[in-house]
Design goal:
Mean pLDDT: 92
Low-confidence stretches: none
Number of strands: 4
Distance between the termini: 5 Å
Radius of gyration: 14 Å
CATH class: Alpha Beta
Shape: globular
Structural class: alpha+beta
Length: about 110
């Protein structure tokens, strides 16, 4: 399994707009992608204008295909709520109790 962590810094007062865009516009795009597993949205308790979106993918190839074919469109959807372009980090998932992945057994 593979994950993408997208960090977003919001324009103050745009949090509700961003959450709405994530649920109504971005989530359907993610759910239609081959290999998409789940998305988790996080709000920073110390900085409410900072959000992280963690997406889980069956494989690195699935995540890379999404990034290549659809991420710019998603970035454009959320752009009106952002101070600057989102940043993306990627990781191999080694363990997950929710997805029953044992250390060293990632897909």
């Amino acid at each position: 399994m593979y994950t993408r962590i997208v960090e977003c810094h919001l324009i103050p007062g745009k949090k509700d707009e961003m959450l709405s865009r994530l649920m109504n516009d971005v989530t359907p795009v993610l759910q239609s992608q081959p290999g998409f597993v789940d998305m988790i949205g996080l709000t920073d308790e110390n900085d409410p204008d900072r959000l992280l979106a963690i997406s889980l993918w069956q494989s690195k190839e699935d995540a890379e295909r999404y990034h290549r074919d659809h991420f710019q469109m998603v970035a454009d959807i959320i752009a009106p709520a952002l101070k600057r372009s989102p940043t993306v980090q990627t990781f191999t998932v080694n363990t997950s109790t929710a997805h029953h992945i044992a250390a060293g057994k990632a897909a």
